[in-house]
Amino acid sequence: MSGVVPAKIAASFTMAELAVLTVIGRQCQRASACVLPVDAIAALAGCSRSTVKNAMRQAKLLGLILVKERRVPGRKSLTNIVSIISKEWLGWLKLGVGVKRLTTTGSHFHSRGESARIVPRGGGSRPSIRPGGSRGGLFG
User: Which class in CATH covers the domain with range 7-95?
Assistant: First the structure.
């Protein structure tokens, strides 16, 4: 397994809960803590709010994460701060496992260096596309 969560830890969770931990892990890789609201984590993981809460509760019980609540009396609370405290998981994230680095190139794919031109089909009203250069005009 080459995801954000090590296989030994991932074995304790369902696929949906693992998706939640992956979102949290990616956020912790970027900013050392996850401050996303539960709804945002659920949307990114593709699961429900209750799955997010269950995954976080289970991870907390296993000693994988620390959840700091930021309650504000008389007003809406701030989002929780979720930090990874598992040495195994932190070491896994430092290795950069599961991180795909994309490189961009200036080259584009062209089939045999030719461009396509639109040619009308015989008897029908829908044109077809055939290889070859455009020779002035739409059907020329």
Answer: mainly alpha
